[in-house]
Amino acid sequence: MLWDELAQDWGRYAAPICPDSADLAHFRAGISGADDHVLLLGVTPLLAGLGRKLTSVDTCRSMIDLVWPGDNETRRAVQGNWLFDLAHAAGFTAAITDGGLSVLRWPDQYVMLFASLRAAGAPQCRLIARCHFSANVQPTPDLAVLRAELRSGLRPDPDLVRFRVAHALVAASGEPNIAVRETVRVAAELLHDQPEARASLLARPHAHCDESYSFPNPVQLIELIEDCGFWVDHAGLRSHDPFVHCTVQ
Ligand SMILES: C[S@@+](CC[C@H](N)C(=O)[O-])C[C@H]1O[C@@H](n2cnc3c(N)ncnc32)[C@H](O)[C@@H]1O
After folding, report:
1. pLDDT of 96-111, one tens digit each?
2. Does residue 45 register a pLDDT over 80?
3. Which residue among 60, 104, 209, 214 is best mutated to probe the pocket of ligand 1, counting the most ligand atoms within 8 A of its Cβ?
4. Cβ(23) to ligand 1 under 6 A?
5. How many angstroms is it from 52 CA to the middle of ligand 1?
6. pLDDT tens-digit map of 123-147
7. I need a labelling partner for 116 at 20 to 30 A (CA). Which of 41, 55, 73, 225 fits?
8. 47 φ, ψ (degrees, to nearest 5)
9. Residue 79: strand pairing partners
10. Hey, whose CA ends up nearest to atom 11 of ligand 1?
C-alpha cells in the first residue's frame, strides 16, 4: 500500500505537500470555540497538539507507528477507516484534515466521508480541511510553464514536480480524479534531461501504486458538501487560500 511505503521516509516531505506554520495557525483559529474534542483525519504531526482532546484516525498502521508523534493524556491515534469507522471519536466537536480529502475518490468517497462525519460528530460539529485546489496552487499548474522552467535549469524535488504535474493535469482536464501513476509517467517525461531526478522519481512508491488522488475545484466541492447537509462557512476561492470550513446544519 502507498501509505505503508510513504511512512518509511515521511520526514522528506515539506510544504505544500505537508502543512506549514501558517496552516497550523489557520487550523487553530478554525477550531476556536469548538476544540473540546478534535478529530484529526490522518496523523499529520504538526496538527497533533491541537484541541483540548484530540483523536487521530488513520487506516494505515505504519503511518500511526512511524509518523504519529505518540499518544499522551490529551491525544491518541487509533486505526480506522474515516468512511465508516469513526466510533472511536464519537461526539467530536471539530474535525480537521490536511489533504485528507484529496486521498479520497471523487465524488462517492467524499459523500461517504461527510455521512460518516455527520453520524459520529456532535451536533453542529465543524470540519476544517486544507485542500489542494488546482487553480490556486502556486506556481501556476501548467505543463508548458513547468517544462520551460525545467529546461531553463530548475532542479526541483521530484516529488514537487509530480505534485505540480498532478495539478496541471487536473486543471487541464477538469476531471478531479487523477491516477498517481499517471502523474509519475508525465513527470518522468518532463525530467528526461535530468536523469538523476528522473531515477529518483521512478524509485518512489508512487511509481508503482494503484491509488488515485482527487482535486475537485472549490465550486464542485462546495456543492457536494452542501448536498451532504453541511453549511460551507469558508472556501478558498482566492488564490493562496487552500481551506474549506463547514458545519453540520
Ligand atoms: C491526511 S492524508 C494527506 C497527508 C497530509 N498532507 C499530511 O501532512 O499528513 C494522508 C493519510 O490519510 C490516510 N488515509 C487515507 N484514506 C483513509 C481512510 N479512508 N481512512 C483513514 N485514513 C485514511 C493515509 O493512511 C495517510 O496516513
Report:
1. 999 999 999 999 999 9
2. yes
3. 60
4. no
5. 22
6. 999 999 999 887 777 767 789 988 9
7. 73
8. -95, 0
9. 58
10. 42
Domains and CATH numbers, the chain: 2-133+216-248 (3.40.50.150), 134-211 (no CATH)
The pLDDT assigned to 14 comes to 83
Judging by beta carbons within 10 Å of its beta carbon (0-12, 13-18, 19+), is residue 80 exposed, middle or buried? Answer: middle
Residue 13: C-alpha distances to residues 6, 39, 80, 213, 216 (Å): 10, 23, 24, 17, 23
Q: Convert the pLDDT of each residue in 64-77 to its tens digit.
A: 999 999 999 999 99
Q: pLDDT tens digits for 147-189?
A: 998 888 777 788 889 999 999 999 899 899 999 999 999 999 9
3-class DSSP state for residue 62? helix
Tell me the three cell numbers of residue 152: 531553463
For residues 157 and 154, what is the distance between their CA atoms, to the nearest angstrom? 10
242 lines ligand 1 (CB under 6 A): no
d(CA 112, CA 118) in angstroms, rounded, equals 10
